[in-house]
Amino acid sequence: MIEQTLLKCEEMIQRGSSSFYKAFAGLPSPRREAVHVIYAFCRMIDDSVDEPEESPYSIFELRSHFQNLDHAEGHFIWPALRWLFENFPQSSKDQFMLQMQGQVRDLSFTHYETMDQLESYCYLVAGTVGEMLLPVLRDDSNEEAQSAGIALGMGMQIVNIIRDVGEDLTRGRRYLPLEVMEKHGYTQQELERNVVNDRFIAVLQELKGAALDWFKEGLDNVHTYPPESGMAVELAAAFYAGILDDVAASGYDVFRRRAYVSDEAKLLMFRRTAARYPSPFGGKGAAAVH
């Protein structure tokens, strides 16, 4: 029974994020399945706000069911989450609650003024994911590892914000901080007209620099992870950094084209990363990425 439940979580991550799925495909069981469960629930939280008409629950219903997880029924995510906490007892529910708090913010707080505001949001919706993954990816816990996990999540969320500027605009949201736009002389009116110019590129490049700084901090202690987990973390960061490269290659036009990383590019990144890890792990991972 639980096998079918976990398979449904895997199907969600396959459909929702090929980058995340491929980055963590080389993990041993049950770490791999735990990543699928965490992704699936976070996807449901995100969809409940961004696509409420397609979501089986509102964000408030998700929060209520999660608070009463022992008795929650009606969807495969509830037994999957019970399995997660049973198999990884060091996992905390606090980060999931913070994640939902961040998504609730999207319902009312839609235009960001400062980088501090943006980074607070990025922690809630993505830094918390780094914290959720930590007890799944490694058997110990320390402050340095926790900070690194948060940093990786923060960097990934800023990449998402850069990639999704146009899409978010159609939802009435502007995550680009006004102070950064004003610093580079780019206006809200230009944003609404989808203007790509040197000033807009400078705004995105500043955010790109922030994302890369978070990635650097997040990878500083990757050598302390079990090899399979360390490689998964490196791949996830590389795939997301690849989105930034694609944004630049398209002239920073994030209004008319959604940036992505091709399967060929992911395979190249995998080979470069696997070369730093001892065999036979590299060979095992290669099969997973294919």
Break the fold down into its secondary structure elements and pairings:
Layout: H1 2-16, H2 18-23, H3 31-50, H4 59-67, H5 77-87, H6 94-105, H7 115-137, H8 143-163, H9 165-170, H10 178-183, H11 188-192, H12 198-219, H13 227-249, H14 263-274, H15 281-289
Keywords: Carotenoid biosynthesis, Transferase
Pfam families: SQS_PSY
GO molecular function: geranylgeranyl diphosphate synthase activity; squalene synthase [NAD(P)H] activity
The number of helical segments is 15
Query: What is the quaternary state of this protein?
Result: single chain
Tell me the structural class.
mainly alpha
User: What global shape is seen?
Assistant: globular
- Quick one: biggest sheet? none
Instruction: Please give the number of β-strands.
Output: 0
Output the radius of gyration: 19 Å
How much helicity do the residues have? 55-70%
Name of the level-1 CATH class: Mainly Alpha
Distance between the termini: 28 Å
**CATH architecture group name:** Orthogonal Bundle
The overall number of domains is 1
List the uncertain runs.
282-288
* Rounded mean pLDDT score: 94
Q: How is this structure best described in words?
A:
With 290 residues, this protein is mainly α. 69% of the residues lie in helices and 0% in strands.
